[in-house]
Amino acid sequence: MLGKFSRDEKYIIYGEFYLFLLLGVYSLMVGALVPQIRKEYGISYELSGYLISANSIGMIVMNLMASYMVILLGLKRAYTMLHALVIVGLVAVTISGNPILLIIGMAFIGFARGTLANLSNQIINDVTKSDSRIINLVGVFFAFGACVAPFVVLYFSESAGNWRYANYCVAIAAAAGITTAAFMKFGKEGVVANKVKRGGLSFFKKKKFWLSFTSMFCYSGMEISIIGWLVTYFIEAQHTTAQFASAMATLLWASMLVGRLACSFIANRTTPAKLVLCLSIGVVVFMALFISNISLPLLVVAIIGLGLFLSGVYSTIVAGVGPISGEYKLAFGYFFMLAGLGPVILPTIIGVIAERYGIQLGIRALVVPAAALLILSFLNVRFDSRSSLG
Predict the structure, then answer these.
(1) Does any domain span residue 1?
(2) Which domain holds residue 320?
(3) Is the per-residue pLDDT at 383 higher than 80?
(4) How many structural domains is the chain composed of?
(5) What is the rounded end-to-end Cα distance, in angstroms, of the chain?
(6) pTM > 0.90
(7) DSSP character at residue 329
(8) Which of 30, 156, 280, 380 has the fewest CB atoms within 10 Å around its CB?
(9) Beta pairing partners, 197
(10) Is residue 102 part of a domain?
(11) CATH of the domain at 209
(12) Could you give the CA distance from residue 356 to residue 292 in angstroms, rounded to a whole number?
């Protein structure tokens, strides 16, 4: 698969596999840590929602700022320096239960997530020329990291007796990722020598850009809400043990791992828009099953189905918008920033609903972005069809 790439490009691709794994760990750690923080510091549902949203706010701020920091500092310096903020965030969350410090710590973890989401996706798109198969494959590593994260937190909280040790381990892994990125060889304009526009916001005039980022808005808001609230939902609404709830979080990402492997094989056999539409249909079906008043075994089935169909949405949308990002230097920054408003808004809405009406009703609100994703995916397929006809 990588035979056509140079030695330096292969190093970058393999390095991105590891960095996407870390991105998965950072993303899932937030949801896994919230119950531990709630238990130890006695914080409310609303503050828990603010912590999840603070992480998402940090992510969307850096989604945009990372693009400007690349212009200011260069790709390698921006990539390594901004990624290092995750270590600061992990330490802040570890040392104190002060609400302000917790929010700041979560925001710093979000800064690193935003940096990797923007720059890593831009790098892998540049190196592979928006190859959907490889882009979905790096998503497999993201899913693997997401699978590992809840069990890392659970192991240290239950077996080792202190969830803080999980933060220390992830900080060490982050340092290894930063070192890996430091040895990547980038050109002055990016990984490849394509001529791209440093400025210019003309991509806002492209209907494809609007359809893509609104689809990502719905998907990412829904995904981070499921990730952030899944463990709490099973413990407090379904009255399961913490071990079972963490197992469900891992099952979700194990299903996503399988789904992304499947998507990496079929991605080049259809268009990104059509693949996202098929995945969106499955998301709506299993989301409807998940929010229904069903037995625990059927909830497990719903989790598996959601994981399988959510799996390829992110990477395939990114592949679809890749040609626009190749033309406009700032397109990815604005794309991820605007789409990142979803993870800010939805977890907070769910937290507010859960505080007033219960976590079960809060989770049911997720049917709205699921339905919107399906409608947008259908419109995106129609747009592509009309464009191909001239």
Answers:
(1) no
(2) 7-388
(3) yes
(4) 1
(5) 33
(6) no
(7) T
(8) 156
(9) 328
(10) yes
(11) 1.20.1250.20
(12) 20
